[in-house]
Specification:
This is Diadenosine tetraphosphate (Ap4A) hydrolase and other HIT family hydrolase. One of its GO terms (molecular function) is hydrolase activity. With 116 residues, the chain is of the alpha+beta class. It has a single domain, classed as HIT family, subunit A, CATH 3.30.428.10. 21% of the residues lie in helices and 22% in strands. The chain is built from 2 helices and 5 strands, in the order αβββαββ. A 5-stranded antiparallel beta sheet has the order 1-2-3-5-4, covered by helices on one side.
Length: 116
C-alpha cells in the first residue's frame, strides 16, 4: 500500500484529519463514525492499512482478535450493557467505503434481523 495515497483512517491517525478518538493503543484506534447508523456507532481501525478482509493473512489473526477485544472495551465504556453489534464490511457490495478494514460497533437501540 506504500504506492497508494494514505487512507482516510491513516490521515486521522496521523492528525492530518480530525477524528473523535475514544480509544487508542499501539495496534488500533476507535473513533466515532461521522455518519452514525445507531445512537452509538464506533469504528475500531487497525493502524496497519489492510484494504479489505480479503487481504488478511494468517499473520493478521492476532490483530483481528485484538480489534474485537477493543470493541468489547469501547462498548463497555459507552454503556452498551444491553448488547451491541459488530460488523466488518468487505468491498463494494457490502458497502465498504474506505479501503482500510474497520470494525463497526453499533448499539444504543434494538437491532433488527436480517440486517440488510
Amino acid at each position: 500500500m506504500s504506492d497508494r495515497e494514505k487512507t482516510l483512517f491513516q490521515k486521522m491517525m496521523s492528525g492530518e484529519i480530525e477524528a473523535d478518538v475514544v480509544y487508542e493503543d499501539d495496534l488500533c484506534i476507535a473513533i466515532r463514525d461521522i455518519n452514525p447508523q445507531a445512537p452509538t456507532h464506533l469504528l475500531v481501525v487497525p493502524r496497519k492499512p489492510i484494504p479489505t478482509l480479503d487481504d488478511l493473512t494468517e499473520e493478521d489473526e492476532p490483530l483481528v482478535g485484538h480489534l474485537f477485544t477493543v470493541a468489547k472495551k469501547v462498548a463497555a465504556s459507552e454503556g452498551l450493557t444491553n448488547g451491541y453489534r459488530t460488523v466488518f464490511n468487505c468491498k463494494e457490495d457490502a458497502n465498504q467505503t474506505v479501503e482500510h478494514i474497520h470494525l463497526h460497533v453499533l448499539g444504543g437501540r434494538k437491532m433488527k434481523w436480517p440486517p440488510g
